[in-house]
Amino acid sequence: MTAFNVPTILDAVCPFGYLGRARFERAITFHRKTVPGGSSSTFNIRWHAYRLDIIQLTESALVTDIAVLEFGADRLTSKRAPG
């Protein structure tokens, strides 16, 4: 018996996450059917949420202030420059 620990990051609202999950479940089924002793294998899937913004703010902030935190003040001014 083999135990597979699979940490998985999934965005619950993304259609590609749904497709990836379905393909992963098919791969597990295929493994169990084709690999000798695969039917006794266990898959421990640990789901983690995908987060676009990892900055934890305790109070509201301006979007420009958050952009400075993420990109730096010098990059923010270059993003605003025309042309």
Order of H and E elements: EHEHH
Output the radius of gyration: 21 Å
Mean pLDDT: 83
Strand order of the largest sheet: 1-2
Beta-sheet strand percentage?
15-25%
Principal-axis shape equals: elongated
Note the total helix count.
3
Structural class: alpha+beta
Low-pLDDT segments: none
Distance from N terminus to C terminus (CA atoms, Å) equals 61 Å
Give the helix level as a range of percent: 40-55%
Number of strands: 2
**What summary fits the major beta sheet?**
2 strands, parallel
Write a concise keyword list for the protein shown above:
elongated; alpha+beta; 2 strands; 83 residues; two-stranded parallel sheet; single chain
How are the SSEs placed, and which strands pair?
Layout: E1 3-10, H1 15-34, E2 42-49, H2 63-71, H3 73-80
Parallel strand pairs: 1-2
Helix pairs in contact: 2-3
Structure description:
With 83 residues, this protein is α+β, with helices and mostly antiparallel strands. The protein contains 3 helices and 2 strands. The protein has helices spanning 15-34, 63-71, 73-80, and strands at residues 3-10, 42-49. Strands 1-2 form a two-stranded parallel sheet. Helix 2 packs across helix 3. The longest helix is centred in the N-terminal third of the chain and has 20 residues, at 15-34. The chain is elongated and about 60 Å long. The N and C termini lie far apart (61 Å). The model has no long low-confidence stretch (mean pLDDT 83).
